[in-house]
Design brief:
Structural class: alpha/beta
Distance between the termini: 35 Å
CATH architecture: 3-Layer(aba) Sandwich
CATH class: Alpha Beta
Number of domains: 1
Strand content: 15-25%
Largest sheet: 9 strands, mixed
Number of helices: 8
Shape: globular
Number of strands: 15
């Protein structure tokens, strides 16, 4: 899917109450002081707290125009006031909480449809924790972390802004490698992105990804998978497989979704110097 907007996905603990480095980055993507940012707290069980935290965080990042919206029921996601806020926004940021709660309130609504249309026309979209997982078409919905051969990973439907990737979060902190591998075994054409807390991946219109923050992005690539036997989430078998590729990328690394290739900061700097000498 060709878009002009960027995705900015955070693995949880986005620093809104601390250093705000990741919030600052999303604010700059959206246009800085001139940006109009809409924050959606529908995944949260404590929207009042998130309202205050994100209003303060984006104001501290220099954004003067910040709107907060919380929908608990699907009817609220068709609200004209919300759609108006979405139409005028430069960026939309989804809070953490529960991705099933978020999609239950906003999936397959007028907001959902308008979000995808605006994203294709240049809207920047960010999210932390559940807000990051919700960007997938195939979305991890459960909390399992059993060994991959026994993992009844629960999958559902997300917003679909990132159709080629399954996104997981709180990755290292909650030991979620097994469930991401299990999700990719069942969907080998898709990449698995596991984001640590305090870590973000920024994805541009061409599928170029950059890593920011304190932790790592773990990439699970099943494109060379062979011998797998995917099973349903309700009746897990003991799949055997080979050829799974794994990358662990930290700040400064880049990843190309189209070629499925990683580039280190050292290689990027060397290639830059080489081009300069060639001139």
């Amino acid at each position: 899917m060709v878009t002009r907007g960027k995705l900015f996905l955070v693995g949880g603990k986005d620093g809104r109450n601390d250093d705000r480095v990741l919030i600052d980055r999303f604010a700059r993507i959206c246009g800085g002081a001139a940006a109009r940012v809409l924050v959606i707290t529908s995944a949260s069980e404590t929207p009042e707290r998130h309202l205050e935290e994100y209003t303060n965080a984006f104001h501290e990042s220099g954004v003067g125009d910040v709107s907060i919206f919380h929908a608990e029921e699907r009817a609220a996601s068709d609200d004209r006031a919300l759609l108006s806020l979405l139409d005028r926004a430069d960026g939309v940021y989804f809070s953490g909480g529960g991705q099933r709660r978020l999609l239950g309130a906003m999936g397959s609504t007028r907001f959902d449809d308008r979000l995808r249309k605006r994203y294709r026309k240049g809207l920047h979209v960010g999210g932390t924790s559940a807000g990051a997982s919700a960007m997938s078409s195939v979305m991890i919905a459960g909390d399992g972390k059993d060994p991959v051969q026994q993992s009844p990973v629960e999958l559902s439907t997300g917003f679909g802004l990132l159709p080629e990737v399954i996104v997981d979060q709180h990755f290292q902190q909650r030991e979620r490698l097994s469930r991401l591998i299990a999700a990719v075994v069942r969907n080998p054409s898709l990449l698995g992105f596991g984001l640590d807390e305090g870590t973000a991946v920024e994805i541009d219109a061409r599928g170029g990804a950059r890593i920011f923050g304190k932790g790592a992005l773990t990439v699970v690539d099943g494109s060379r998978l062979r011998g797998s036997s995917p099973t349903s989430s309700n009746e897990p078998d003991r799949p055997a497989f080979a050829g799974m590729r794994l990358h662990v990328l930290t700040e400064g690394w880049r990843y190309d979704l189209a070629t499925r290739a990683a580039k280190s900061p050292v290689k990027a700097r060397r290639s830059g110097r080489g081009r300069a000498r060639a001139r």
